[in-house]
Specification:
The chain is α+β, with helices and mostly antiparallel strands. It is about 70% helix and about 15% strand.
């Protein structure tokens, strides 16, 4: 009797190994691409929002300075620049006339050229702060300039840290998922091996029982053949005697 045996799950073929490695590599590439793409777009959104906020503050500063520039109220401009510079993300505020001459500035302000020379080691100061310049307009005529120095890294710090925390959590989840998948695969493989062994033992027992039955049947057939031969001999002897 010819029986079809299942392949042993404990040993994978070269094709199966190559397929598994290819699938795992594709999954890793896709997950890495998604993670980097999400992080890149998240930082891009934060930067765009900070840019929009800085431009809005610059326009508001320029509009607020219009009456003071018209009246040449230096004290009012100084108060205005200090009010805007009190914002946590605005390092300095300036007002210039239409010829570019400085009229008023916030307290503890420094020129942007000096700010670029500030070393990175000074806490609370970043060389990545950007100047936002807006025209001060009256009756569609430019009467001056308003400038604020906005710290973009400080403005997006909270969102930046949150993105990094989320990225780390996602990476940790992926690592845990990989470990759980590996453990589950090992459990499934062990179950398949035990199932294969059990089927093999059952198949061997059935085969042994079949062989025994076949041997018994052959022995019975041989006995029957001998009995028939003996009967034929007896009949031949009787005919001879007659």
């Amino acid at each position: 009797m010819k029986k079809k045996q299942d392949s042993n799950p404990a040993f994978a073929s070269h094709y199966q190994r190559l397929s598994r490695l290819t699938l795992a590599a594709i999954c890793i590439v896709i997950l890495t691409h998604l993670g980097l793409n999400t992080s890149f777009h998240g930082h891009e959104i934060l930067d765009n929002q900070a840019q929009a906020t800085a431009q809005s503050l610059g326009k508001q500063f320029a509009l607020s300075a219009v009456p003071y520039v018209i009246e040449e109220d230096i004290a009012g401009l100084s108060q205005l620049t200090n009010n805007f510079a009190s914002d946590a993300f605005i390092q300095s505020a300036y007002v210039f006339d239409k010829y570019g001459l400085l009229i008023a500035k916030s307290d503890n302000s420094s020129l942007y050229s000096n700010l670029l020379e500030t070393p990175n080691s000074v806490p609370g100061i970043t060389t990545l702060s950007s100047p936002i310049v807006q025209n001060i307009m009256h009756n569609e005529k430019r009467i001056g300039f308003a400038r604020i120095t906005y710290s973009f890294p400080a403005a997006i710090k909270t969102g930046h840290e949150y993105l990094h925390d989320v990225s780390q959590q996602i990476a940790l989840m992926l690592i845990v998922s990989c470990i759980l998948t590996w453990v589950l695969a090992r459990k499934i493989k062990r179950w398949q091996v035990k199932r294969y062994i059990l089927k093999s033992e059952t198949s061997d027992e059935n085969q042994l029982e079949f062989d025994e039955n076949e041997e018994q049947q052959q022995a019975i057939e041989r006995i029957q053949v001998k009995e028939q031969e003996q009967e034929q001999k007896k009949e031949s002897a009787n005919k001879s005697n007659e």
